[in-house]
Design goal:
single chain; 382 residues; alpha/beta; Rossmann fold; four-stranded parallel beta sheet; 13 helices; 12% strand; globular; binds iron/sulfur cluster
């Protein structure tokens, strides 16, 4: 399901009720609660990965940008999004902005919305703007199915997504202590499936996996603990995640699929103004990300907090090739690592990277050098 480019479960779900709608959205973050409350399914579109050969998509873009927009265009041209009613393009970079324009030109869906996230974090300015943006999305869906989003419906949906984030966090917390119980690649698949199925079903799957790894399974191995950062939009191929493990690392924190775990904590479920609650959560509870302006709470300080919290031995900066938001941040974050004596390496990938040998050698050397010669990065030394 995690890599189903035909979106089988989503289509099947929609076919069971004439008022249901499918709304595709790109990374990084979109508050899926609002679509759920409007009898819709927000479907995360993460590109074709290494499962789709790009032929036509390359013709739409210059060579010096990332890969994900090419594969999304290829998916659109090959009719993978048939049955989708609308598309949301959250603002993060010019590539996504241009992709939204291309979807409009191609006539994909019944609406295409470029969702401009505020970078002003004062409620009466950025908050008012963002809330208005969310209402615009709801208005578009209402035009399609006539379902009125009441306060009760929205609060119910918020509760389901609170639970979803809570379960994902539980998986990360258990894995932090016992990383051998669930591989990073398996965790990735389990979480990624949440992009393309109803949240109720994803919550059931997550609950089962939480229960499973609550018990002792597998054997600890002599690996270093790493944090992977930079992969919040175009996703690394699953083979690359496996390669990091094979090279001697337990991934105990990452920003893969960041949108699914975006809000740090719960959104209020008792609010008389649930859209306001969702807005405030974005303003006050967004994570460390290149797509968020960090007023008074710098990314480098947040990274160090995360390193301390997850007790990592080293950081892997892994960004998609030509990803401006990630690559502009990395020098700042790497300087902080240098200043704090935190070990790191850095490489780039593409969603369809097929050869991992060089990365395996690089990560393996990194892991060996920490295991053999380094003092552990102790929380106190940060
Ligand atoms: S990978 Fe980076 S540059 Fe490409 S669309 Fe995503 S955020 Fe933009």
């Amino acid at each position: 399901m995690a890599f189903d480019l035909s979106f089988t479960r989503a289509r099947e779900w929609k076919s069971q009720d004439k008022d249901r709608v499918l709304v595709g959205h790109m990374p990084v973050y979109f508050p899926r609660e609002i679509i759920h409350a409007a009898n819709g399914l927000a479907v995360g579109i993460l590109g074709g990965g290494d499962k789709k050969l790009i032929i036509k998509g390359d013709a739409y873009y210059q060579s010096y940008i990332c890969h994900i927009p090419r594969s999304i265009i290829e998916l659109a041209l090959d009719k993978h999004f048939e049955g989708f009613d609308g598309f949301i393009f959250p603002s993060i970079c010019d590539v996504i902005r241009n992709l939204s324009g291309m979807f409009q030109l191609l006539g994909e869906g019944k609406f295409v919305k470029y969702l401009d996230f505020p970078q002003n974090f004062k409620y009466h300015i950025g908050g008012t703007f963002y809330r208005h943006e969310l209402q615009t999305v709801l208005d578009e869906v209402y035009k399609l199915n006539g379902v009125k989003v009441t306060t009760a419906r929205l609060n119910h949906s918020i509760g389901l997504f609170n639970l979803n984030r809570h379960l994902i966090n539980q998986l990360y917390d258990i894995r932090q202590e016992f990383p051998w119980r669930l591989t990073a690649a398996d965790l990735y698949h389990v979480v990624r499936a949440g992009n393309v199925i109803p949240v109720e079903e994803h919550n059931e799957i997550l609950s089962e996996v939480v229960q499973l790894i609550g018990e002792e399974i597998g054997d600890p191995m002599d690996k270093i603990r790493v944090l992977v950062i930079g992969a919040f939009c175009e996703q690394p191929p699953a083979g690359l995640i496996r390669t990091i493990k094979l090279a001697g690392c337990y991934i105990v924190e990452d920003d893969f699929l960041l949108g699914l775990k975006w809000i740090q904590g719960d959104i209020d479920t008792d609010s008389a103004e649930p859209l306001e609650a969702i807005t405030k959560a974005y303003l006050d509870k967004s994570p460390l990300s290149s797509s968020v302006f960090d007023v008074g709470n710098t990314k480098e300080a947040r990274l160090v907090d995360l390193i301390r919290h997850r007790k990592v031995d080293g950081v892997i900066f892994a960004a998609p090739s030509f990803c401006d938001p990630a690559l502009l941040d990395h020098p700042i974050l790497q300087k902080e690592c240098n200043d704090k004596n935190i070990r790191f390496i850095s490489f780039m990938y593409s969603e369809n990277t097929g050869q991992f040998k060089v990365i395996k050698e690089q990560v393996g050397t990194f892991s060996d050098s920490i295991k053999l010669w380094d003092e552990p990065v102790l929380a106190d030394s940060l």
